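Risk register update: the risk of archive-format incompatibility is retired. Evidence:
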Amino acid sequence: MIKLIATDIDGTLLRSDHTHSAELPALLHSLKENNILFSLASGRPYLTLLNAFNIDTTDVLFIAENGAHVVYRNKPLTIHRMDSETIERLTDTTRKIPKAYSILCTPEGAFVEEDNPDFLEELEKYYFKYTVVPDVTKVQCDIVKYSVCDLAGVEQNSYRHFDDFKSTLQVSLAGPAWLDIMIKGVNKGNAIQELQAALNITEKETMVFGDYLNDLEMMKSAYYSYAMENAHPELFEAARFKAPSNDADGVILKIKEMLNNNLIPLEE
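Archived output:
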């Protein structure tokens, strides 16, 4: 019997045009009636997730910032803070990379130090609230995630520049233009495992859906792990099952299939 469902947002629950299925509100109601906790697990900030859906998300658990900021019913359950020295080193590295931009992510919003129109256009797809400042290293807030927006393509351009950080930090490819960096051990998978332990939920009682490399650890947290048809090739190796693409509403289809099968997913 499924008790917990967690899904990534971009490229997974949302279609390519950033819309969602009209069936989502009714599906959330069905999950609540069946005492199934539904979680949005994303690299996006909490404020963006809260405003991304024009539906009632009162009973949705938010695993934001790849697990660095977990919120339920507007109350933070987890906040993992990064130290200022690390932020300075990461920022210094990013400033040396052409077409790469720093984003400091806090529970109150993001901070950037560039107002390049192309960068801001990409930023505004995922960040509901941000502030442009002269120097992000001077920001005095709880930093839960450091992101790099690379307009030249993060895998090809900037990813290698952060090799020296991988032994001490969680460095995750979050999208074609996005690199997310958190403190070591912070990821969606560990956030889900903490929830499972707190709520006495097993891997066999958990479903997860994802499409990109910041979903890798999440695939290992659930028996019913689904890589979307449009997923990054490496995710198929980590996931146990495959779901139709985000544009075919694969998450909705698989959850409905589970509900129609008396809460036991079909093992493919």
